[in-house]
Specification:
The chain is α+β, with helices and mostly antiparallel strands. The protein has 1 helix and 7 strands; from the N terminus they run βββββββα.
């Protein structure tokens, strides 16, 4: 399934709005339009919109975990930690459950990747064992 223009071509799980803490000195919260797919979280400025592209894509392959979930008042605060240890802070209204949606999509992605890795290692081991067996049979009188 094709997502909105600028989003990953992966199946879209959810669309909506989050607030991201800026990296500037004042660390202001900025609203972002977001698209959650099976392999990424795409962020767009609300002014530019998803249709025009130009957003930032956080691919799940580069995300280590969703961390520091804290509920205060009407917001849930959470941090996405990347594989290069960068921390990106977000907040959302408590009832929106964006942190749970992102966490579940990330876990699903990581589980699928682990299964694929296991299968490819298993196939490689089977091929190596078959090659060894074939060499032994070729040497037998």
């Amino acid at each position: 399934m094709k997502g909105p223009a600028g989003a990953s071509p992966s199946e879209v799980i959810r669309e909506g709005e989050l607030e991201k803490r800026s990296d500037s000195l004042f660390q202001l919260w900025k609203k972002k339009a977001v698209v959650l797919s099976k392999d990424s979280l795409s962020l767009f400025s609300p002014e530019a919109g998803k249709a025009r592209g130009g957003g930032k894509e956080l691919r799940f392959g580069s995300i280590q975990k969703v961390d520091c979930v804290e509920r205060t008042g009407k917001y849930v605060y959470f941090t996405i930690v990347t594989t290069d240890r960068k921390e990106i802070d977000f907040r959302c209204p408590g009832e929106s459950c964006w942190n749970a949606s992102i966490t579940m999509a990330l876990i699903d992605f990581q589980n699928k990747r682990a299964i694929e890795d296991f299968k490819s290692r298993q196939e490689a081991a089977e091929h190596a064992a078959a090659a060894t067996r074939d060499r032994r049979l070729a040497r037998a009188p």
